[in-house]
Design a protein that fits this description.
This protein has 697 residues and is of the alpha/beta class. It contains 22 helices and 13 strands. Among the domains are: 242 residues, P-loop containing nucleotide triphosphate hydrolases (Rossmann fold, 3-Layer(aba) Sandwich), CATH 3.40.50.300; 61 residues, no CATH class; 131 residues, 2-Layer Sandwich (Alpha-Beta Plaits), CATH 3.30.70.1130. The strands form three sheets. It has a seven-stranded mixed sheet, sandwiched between helices. A four-stranded antiparallel sheet has the order 3-4-2-7. It has a two-stranded antiparallel ribbon with strand order 5-6. The longest helix has 90 residues.
């Protein structure tokens, strides 16, 4: 319960702005934590008892489990050379992990079960758990068996360790035998392949006379070089003759005869450096390219080997031409001597023409002969080239046969040597495994651990209960404690009225005057009265409104009993039922609501006419009167202010019982006209947010 002063009196109170919502509870207040737990201690107790009960039932129904352990030492034996092992050496961590999985294998577990003579059904029933773990930072493996039978746990742990030793011995033997068998098969296969390769090489040597292959190759190379040089020589001579052909067609007979009568020199003899240049080609052939044009004069400059007939005709012609010149100085052309000389000159010219024709025919014959020689040289060169290629192919094939024989021989030697080494290494153990600690029959179970389980169940129950309590408290949005009124609503707190077991049909028993004076309820109302009187605001709070956020929070009962307590203290009190929709104050006094506040507001009656006396000293009462259709508009009429002035003059306290603030608007209207508001909150039921909204309204 709190007092809210209206904002119509500046500087004398008014509503304090509500503090922000705390979202459940203040996490910094340890006392509040304790209070929250105590308030719902039954939840904590229920969780505690249920958790313990469930654990006790589980422990009673759980069979005892016994544990036995056997320890194996896994160490590497004498290391084998890397080439003798069928696989790479595993790191120690991977090696131990592999051995763990081998022990976990179904085959090994089945062998251990058969070793101890247990049936499959009995084995499944007795075995609870099998664990194979590495002892930290060691090469030890611990086989741990949890069973319902302590003897079975000890037998199975030892049997599994022994079966593992047998399995590793069998594995070593099988691996050695498989290695020997595999190497033997490889050696036999390689020996057969080597024999076939040697036979092929011998047959090739016999068929192709391998000894002469190299010499044949050298001869073919020399012949090819010689043929290439000869073909190049023929080609050069042919090209020289072909180069002379267009020049001869333009030259005079003397030059033609001088040219063709000269014997064909060597391709490079008689040529000056700037006249020709050799362009190197592929192989032994070359191309002679004329770099300067050769005219008729150039042909004469090369020098002519004089033929006897040609020289005589040339000298005779020169002599006759000189003689003809001399005769013409004396005689005319028809002179017999002149005519005789002319006839001789014609005969010489005819003979010279024959010489020219013979020389040209010889030229073309020589050119054709060179072409034939060049083609013949190329054909022979091609045949020798094919011969050289065939010799090279056979030599390459022979080398391949030799390499194949060498490779197979090396592989055979390697496998044979490895087979001998494996025979030696069969007696060497690459790993050494032994049992360092056998399992013993356990004398006490490892589970259930009753004290530990009960303690854990108790902690779980307490934790779950406390968690539920704080969860419910966080979700609880209601106002429960006085400090929540002060902090959450920003209002001064006046008191707490405990819940009373009242008869809902006899409202008169709810009045303070009918309650035992030594009861807690009566004392609570007197505390509220004292807080109201000694709050220092008595002169400002003659007219009070009693309201709440939502219906059914006890505002009517609070208004009546606070007013009665003030009357018992000597103050004249007027109780007014301002709920013009559902007023019930008249029922507490056992009277009818046929007249009341409505009559005053509509002007049908004066206050003196509707005020009713009560059997309680100093307490008068005005009912709501007939319910009007427009209660909010009635409260806004000036008659209400006139009534308030009358009541303040006549009584020490005027208390209005109003409807809830959030339900209708009458309470908000009336709160602006009175001196203060008593705001009633039902602890544990009223929402904090609704209360804050009502205060803000």
């Amino acid at each position: 319960m709190a007092v809210l002063r209206p904002p119509s009196e500046p500087g004398k109170g008014g509503a304090v702005p509500p503090a922000p919502s705390r979202g459940g509870f203040d996490i910094t207040d340890l006392k509040q934590y304790f209070h929250i737990i105590v308030k719902r201690i039954w939840i904590v107790a229920a969780c505690f008892v249920i958790s313990l009960g469930v654990m006790v039932v589980i422990l009673m129904r759980q069979e005892p489990v016994y544990r036995a352990s056997a320890t194996l030492l896994l160490s590497r034996g004498l290391p084998l050379p890397a080439h003798l092992t069928e696989k790479e050496v595993e790191p120690l961590g991977d090696y131990i992990a592999t051995q763990q999985q081998i022990i976990y294998s179904k085959d090994l577990i089945q062998r251990a079960r058969q070793r101890i003579g247990r049936t499959a059904e009995e084995f499944s029933r007795l075995l609870v758990r099998l664990n194979v773990s590495q002892v930290w930072k060691t090469s030890l493996l611990r086989i741990t068996v949890d069973s319902l039978d302590p003897v079975f746990a000890q037998e199975f742990a030892n049997a599994l360790a022994e079966e593992y030793l047998d399995y590793k011995a069998e594995e070593r033997m099988d691996t050695s035998q498989a290695t020997v068998l595999s190497l033997t098969q490889q050696a036999n296969r390689l020996r057969e392949e080597l024999q076939r390769a040697e036979n092929r090489m011998l047959a090739f040597e016999k068929e192709n006379k391998v000894i002469a292959i190299k010499e044949r190759g050298n001869i073919a190379a020399d012949v090819l070089a010689s043929l290439a040089a000869r073909a190049a020589s023929y080609r050069t001579q042919r090209m020289l003759l072909e180069a002379e052909q267009p020049l001869l067609s333009k030259a005079s007979d003397e030059i033609v005869l001088a040219t063709l009568a000269t014997p064909m020199p060597s391709p490079l003899v008689g040529y000056t450096a700037p006249a020709i240049a050799m362009m190197r080609g592929s192989g032994a052939t070359g191309t002679v390219v004329m770099t300067q044009p050769i005219g008729p004069e150039a042909l004469l400059e090369r020098g002519v080997v004089e033929e006897p007939g040609w020289e005589q005709l040339r000298r005779e012609k020169a002599r006759l031409e000189l003689e003809l010149k001399q005769l013409r100085e004396t005689f005319k052309d028809n002179h017999p001597k002149v005519r005789e000389i002319l006839r001789k000159l014609e005969d010489i010219d005819r003979r010279l023409d024959l010489e020219v024709q013979f020389a040209l025919k010889s030229y073309y014959n020589r050119l054709e002969a060179l072409q034939i020689k060049e083609q013949a040289a190329k054909r022979v060169e091609a045949e020798w080239e094919a011969e050289a290629l065939e010799v090279a192919r056979k030599a390459h094939e022979y080398e391949n046969l030799q390499r194949s024989v060498s490779r197979l021989q090396a592989l055979y030697d390697l496998v044979f040597n490895r087979l001998k080494e494996v025979d030696v290494s069969i007696g060497i153990e690459p790993e050494r495994i032994r049992i360092v600690e056998r399992a013993e029959v356990p004398t006490s179970p490892v589970t259930p651990r009753k004290l530990q389980s009960i303690f854990i169940a108790a902690l779980i129950g307490l934790g779950l209960g406390i968690g539920l309590v704080f969860g419910l408290e966080y979700l609880d949005d209601t106002i429960r404690y006085p400090e929540e009124v002060t902090e959450g609503l920003g209002l001064p707190f006046f008191g707490v009225i405990p819940t009373a077991q009242w008869d809902p049909d006899d409202l008169a028993t709810h009045l303070l005057s009918n309650i035992a004076s030594n009861s807690g309820v009566a004392e609570a109302y007197r505390n509220v009265r004292s807080a109201l009187i000694f709050s220092g605001a008595e002169e400002y709070t003659k007219a009070l409104v009693v309201t709440s956020a939502v219906p059914l929070e006890g505002k009517t009962t609070t208004c009546l009993n606070v007013g009665i307590s003030l009357g018992q203290a000597g103050s004249r009190v007027l109780l007014v039922d301002a709920d013009l929709r559902r007023g019930t104050m008249h029922k507490f006094f056992g009277v009818e609501a046929d007249r009341g506040l409505t009559d005053i507001l509509v002007g049908r009656a004066k206050p003196e006419a509707v005020i009713q006396r009560t059997p309680i000293p100093n307490v008068d009462f005005i009912g709501s009167g007939p319910y009007p259709p427009n209660p909010a508009e009635l409260l806004m009429r000036p008659e209400l202010s006139a009534f308030l002035d009358y009541a303040r003059r006549t009584y020490d306290r005027v208390m209005f019982d109003c409807p809830p603030v959030l339900a209708v608007s009458e309470a908000a209207i009336l709160c602006t006209l009175v001196d203060g508001v008593i705001f009633v909150v039902w602890a544990g039921q009223t929402s904090r947010k609704l209360s804050q909204l009502a205060v803000q309204t």
